[in-house]
Amino acid sequence: MVYPHASNVSRKPLILASASERRYALLSQIGCVPDLVVPANLDEEKLLGETPKQLVSRLAILKAKNVFEHHREAIVIAADTVVALGRRVLVKPQNSLEAESTLEMLSGRRHRVYTSVCVRSDETVRQRSVITHVKFKKLKKSEIRNYINSGEWKGKAGSYGIQGKAAAFTISIMGSYTNVVGLPLYETYSLLGSVGYLPALEES
């Protein structure tokens, strides 16, 4: 996918190594509009003994490397997000039954959302990981069923989107809200600035 970014400033193109529309929208929100979207192609399976934090860190770095190898003229940004209960990673559901099972596990409990962001430019590699704690209310079976019927769970880590109907389930969030959406913006903005990327918000 190509998203042309009109800019009067001469700079390296920014490539988002993800097909996530949420990440594209979040980057655009802070003026870091990707010039190109190139999803990374790699195995995202968790390794034996790997913690959630280690998993997102490894995958973010690999995604950035995967795309950068074919676009060395650009700044590449990649990210990976998982939801975890303890050391258990709650992957994106493949169907409604998996989504329902995940929401039943999250019901009335506190869980963690991990995102790692990696930026590559020339030989420079910068990476940050963020953890946010989220607590859900005790969910009724009818609430879970209605949420499943909404289809919001599709393609989402933890089977929910905090920016949608699941906001009604959320008692508290400790940490970055945008991390739960899929990209921690403060850390992302800082990483891009550290490799010399000039967001549209700062262009003159």
Structure description:
With 204 residues, the chain is of the alpha/beta class. It has one domain: Maf protein. It has helices at 21-29, 52-68, 96-106, 141-150, 177-181, 185-194; strands spanning 14-16, 36-37, 75-85, 88-90, 110-121, 124-136, 170-174. Strands 1, 2, 3, 4, 5, 6 and 7 form a seven-stranded mixed β-sheet that branches. It is globular and about 50 Å long. 36% of the residues are buried. Residues 1-10 have low confidence and may be disordered.
Helical content (DSSP H or I, runs of 4+): 25-40%
What integer value in Å does the Rg equal? 17 Å
The low-confidence runs, each spanning 5 or more residues with pLDDT under 50, are 1-10
Our estimate of the beta-strand percent is: 15-25%
Largest sheet: 7 strands, mixed
Distance between the terminal alpha carbons, to the nearest Å? 28 Å
CATH level 3 topology = Maf protein
Got a strand count? 7
Structural class, by secondary structure, is alpha/beta
Q: Count the domains.
A: 1
- Determine and state the CATH class: Alpha Beta
What overall geometry do the principal axes of the alpha carbons give? globular
The total of helices stands at 6
Mean pLDDT metric: 91
